[in-house]
Amino acid sequence: MNNPEKRQPIVDCIYIAASELDARFTRICIASVRYFYPEVPIRLLSGGRLQRGLAAELRQYWGVRIADVPAGDYGWGYVKLEPLFGPPGERFLILDSDTALTGSILDEWKDCDAPFLVDNEQYSESNIRARYYDWRKVVEIDPEARPPLFVFNSGQWLGTAGMLTREDFGPWLEWTFPRRLRHPEYFFPGDQGILNYVLNQKAMLDGLRIECRKIMRWPGHGLEGLDAKIVSARAAMPLIVHWA
């Protein structure tokens, strides 16, 4: 591996959500991170069982460790909320296993001083209701619900521990194993809908600073000019590809 000059990334840790069926994607994701950031700490967020031998393999060859979170079956994506309640002030990047870096994207974020940075996605109101949450229904149980200022896919986002508490999610999420939405009819399943809702409400009501930038690309949507050759030559636009 051609190691770039050592530099200090803007995150203390990169957390990668992994499960038993994700092992192939997990390896690819970690390889892409290590190609551009050989020394940044990487921690696996295990939402359940992992493929046998995967943890030992990743620790031996890539210096990856298992995140210090309670063991259990978290259900779809909810383990990605756990870093929010880690050491106060810890700055982290969350990645799904089916993502890959195309460049030194953390370097592009050095000017971001907001505690949260999310992808700037643009959807119609009907798509927002289908993929995130329906605020017009949520207002029936939360009079303070408002139209979202932003929405983002939760497979890649930058956060800061200590800015949110479990109580912020308490009215909407049961902290059981597995995690359960209290009102699944209003929110997209998994962590995505509830995380978008809580961050939007905190931004609108409490002034929590959240920056939105275009950082993600889907296959078939915005990958023009990207291929393995240009990425390996470190000549690609720094992005996060999400295979989904």
**Which strand-content bin applies to the residues?**
15-25%
Biggest sheet features: 7 strands, mixed
Mean pLDDT: 94
Globally, the shape reads: globular
Q: Which superfamily, in CATH terms, is the homologous superfamily of the domain at 13-127 and 152-165 and 211-242?
A: Spore Coat Polysaccharide Biosynthesis Protein SpsA, Chain A
How much helical structure, as a percent, in the residues? 25-40%
Give the total of beta strands.
12
Tell me, what is the CATH class of the domain at 13-127 and 152-165 and 211-242?
Alpha Beta
The spatial strand order of the largest sheet comes to 3-2-1-4-7-6-10
Structural class given helices, strands, pairing? alpha/beta
Distance N to C terminus: 27 Å
**Quaternary structure:** single chain
Alpha plus pi helix count: 8
The helix/strand series, from N terminus to C terminus, equals EHEHEEEHEHHEHEEHEEHE
In short:
By secondary structure, the protein is of the alpha/beta class.
Q: What does it look like?
A:
It contains eight helices and twelve strands. With about 240 residues, it is an alpha/beta fold. The model has no long low-confidence stretch (mean pLDDT about 95). The two termini are about 25 Å apart. The strands form three sheets. Strands 3-2-1-4-7-6-10 form a seven-stranded mixed β-sheet, covered by helices on one side. It is about 25% helix and about 20% strand. The chain has a domain at about 15-125 and about 150-165 and about 210-240: Spore Coat Polysaccharide Biosynthesis Protein SpsA, Chain A (Alpha-Beta Complex).
